[in-house]
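SAMPLE LOG
Freezer: B-3
Tube label: C17
Construct: single chain, 336 aa
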Amino acid sequence: MWRWGISSVRTVGVTNKELYAPSIAPNLAPLVVVLGPTGAGKSGLALHLAQIFQGEIVNCDSVQVYRGLEIGSAKLPPTERRGIVHHLLDVVDPDGELTAGSYAALARPVLDEIRNRNVIPFVTGGTGFYLRALLAGLSPAPPRNSQLRARLAAIAARRPAALHRFVRRHDPESAARIHQNDRQKLIRSIELTVLARQPASHVQSSPRRPLSGFRTLQIGLNPHRQSLYDALDARSERMFRHGLIEEVRTLLASGLDPDAKSLQTLGYKQAVEYIAGRLSLAEAIRECQAKTRQYAKRQLTWFRAEPAVQWLAGFGSDPIVQNDATLLVREFLGVY
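STRUCTURE (predicted):
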């Protein structure tokens, strides 16, 4: 158990060893973030660090929040969690949705509760918008309006260019950064503009409420690109060959709509297409592999824009990376 100031931290292979830390920012509790692209080994590294520093893990992955989505989300089975407490897994039914704002509203009290027990939280995941909402906060904005969103989706289905045309007319700043085919962002932009009665870009530039009470270390994993792609290709094929299709069949048999947001995610979408007969198994695997590589590239682009991240070149399972990450945390905590 970590205690601010003087602390007893149990390390791997060493028990009951007293380690002393200077009182660095004594009113701020430590928070460690492990981020990076999908397949980089974030969960494994977070487990390694949480075990050394007796911490707890807080999920920051937008697919692992769903109940019943195990294989395609690469959710770590309970038997492999080394007895370490995990938070914010399985908190949403598969027919639901958890926005970035809703995630932050759930995660911040969890962090406070962990801090109040003098334990270090290790936030891990690759959903950049979730992490930004948690740490930096989101601009105050009107909540989602399901009826308006349904109308906008219907318009987009009939006239695909209509949404972007509306945004260009009423909010040129947003139009310049949103691709004309990004229906989800266009709908949200129009929704904000209509409900707030001002351009979405103005709403989104309003002051945010950042996370308070913590000082944060962000560790990023950056494996060699081709090695990452090879690992992702192998993982995608392994998921399809070992249970993903059966998992999706079970979800559909329970009454879950194949168009549910949870089933539009990587792997699940392709499995639905295979079950519906629109893709062969080989086609589903190839599409999942290609989409997953593209997603990993987008994640790296997103996280590289975050100046506070300390990057480690390799996978989280690499002993050298684990050692370097451990040293970073020790330095951050002032424990040697």
